[in-house]
């Protein structure tokens, strides 16, 4: 069942083109799922008490249009299903007329916060959140690190990057990914599809290298491929298909 | 006249101690004043059309308690007055019982965005927002750069740090200021009073040095003094009085 939350996009939620930042978009969607889970075993509070946490492993975003400053939107989420080890959750945003702005598929694991290891799906938990058991495993894009990238920037995890689970806020990765692209490019292009996979957790104080490979795929379209590394470890992979904004 | 807006503090608004981040706090307060100004000459939209912008020159924060994740709060603002060149605005947050959480005084100038220079106060504008003319000039703390600091970190303005006025978001300065303090300290202390002065605008791509001088003033209290520099230029000065959190 879809769960909805109303938002009015604020100026500080937006980049300088007045479009919703991808960082804020993720945070909004996480708020909606937190609101849906509030009185279940899956809520941040209940999970914390049991020493468990949700860890996202992959997102797939399809963007028709990013909402603009002061626009009213409806964000939604739905538990899409689960299997033995993975839970799936969909998200979206609509304008007030019900037109789709964006949709998101995502894949999650349950994590033992003390032992730092994956847990199998908890049947009581998924029952409480109304997720169906899936016979078929949903497929996400297989992202692979490239042999070579064009350029990189260095980023360090800051105190305010940490969330209440003591990890780097998920949305913050977009800060590091998007910032490797030139300002002029970002002001003239919008994302159409984004695949983002998390492999390892970036820790407080870590210096991460955010690598970029940029390819123009047609006159109006581009592909940016991203790898975030800490030392020799691959932490996250991302691909963004862009089109020229109107 | 005070203008109120209701908020529920979200997890992603908070640091790892589950207290509201100072960066988010500023953004919330800016949203409240934007909402109050919405249909006046002082709104972001109207200002933009006239090629003008509000530029804050100093903030003074008094913090009794920072709200926590999922807490409902009322944020308020009020045009406190104006004189020939400066406008003053107060802000605050209260819990639902009306207990004060924090109050803020601030000082603003009107800025010509094309000519990059200060404008005198516009009588029509201040009339529209109900600000009284002040006979006496409100005094803010006189912050001065120190002869020497203890340590510094380097920060670069990123794409998502830019606001819709193409400047670095005001709240972002707190990111650079707070991050110079150790994580353990931040997890065990809360700000009581903050004075923050802006001298020059940090630009996209600038590498800024955020300097820190730390002084223990008593067993329970500390003072941190901050200077943000770009090259030889002083961009912002800040002092934060801290107390041990309970």
Automatic annotation (TrEMBL), chains A, B:
Residues 2-128 form the Acyl-ACP thioesterase N-terminal hotdog domain. GO terms for molecular function: acyl carrier activity; fatty acyl-[ACP] hydrolase activity. It holds the Pfam family Acyl-ACP_TE_C. InterPro entries: Acyl-ACP_TE_C, Acyl-ACP_thioesterase_NHD, FATA/B, HotDog_dom_sf. Keywords: Fatty acid biosynthesis, Fatty acid metabolism, Hydrolase, Lipid biosynthesis, Lipid metabolism, Transit peptide. Belongs to the acyl-ACP thioesterase family. This is Acyl-[acyl-carrier-protein] thioesterase.
């Amino acid at each position: 069942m879809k769960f909805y939350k109303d938002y009015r996009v604020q100026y500080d939620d937006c980049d300088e083109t007045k479009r919703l930042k991808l960082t804020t978009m993720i945070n909004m969607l996480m708020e909606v799922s937190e609101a849906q889970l509030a009185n279940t075993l899956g809520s941040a509070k209940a999970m914390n008490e049991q020493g468990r946490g949700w860890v996202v492993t992959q997102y797939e975003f399809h963007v028709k249009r990013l909402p603009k400053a002061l626009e009213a939107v409806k964000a939604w989420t739905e538990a899409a299903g689960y299997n033995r080890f993975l839970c799936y959750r969909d998200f979206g945003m609509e304008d007030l007329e019900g037109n789709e702005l964006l949709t998101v598929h995502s894949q999650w694991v349950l994590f033992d916060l003390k032992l730092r290891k994956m847990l199998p799906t908890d049947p009581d938990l998924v029952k409480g959140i109304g997720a169906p058991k899936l016979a078929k495993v949903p497929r996400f894009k297989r992202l692979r690190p490239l042999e070579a990238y064009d350029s990189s920037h260095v980023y360090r995890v800051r105190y305010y990057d940490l969330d209440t689970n003591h990890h780097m806020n998920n949305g913050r990765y977009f800060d590091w990914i998007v910032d490797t692209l030139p300002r002029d490019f970002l002001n003239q292009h919008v994302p159409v599809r984004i695949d983002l996979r998390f492999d390892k957790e970036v820790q407080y104080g870590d210096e991460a290298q955010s690598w970029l490979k940029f390819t123009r795929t047609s006159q109006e379209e581009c592909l940016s491929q991203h790898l975030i590394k800490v030392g020799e470890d691959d932490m996250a992979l991302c691909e963004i298909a862009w089109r020229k904004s109107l």
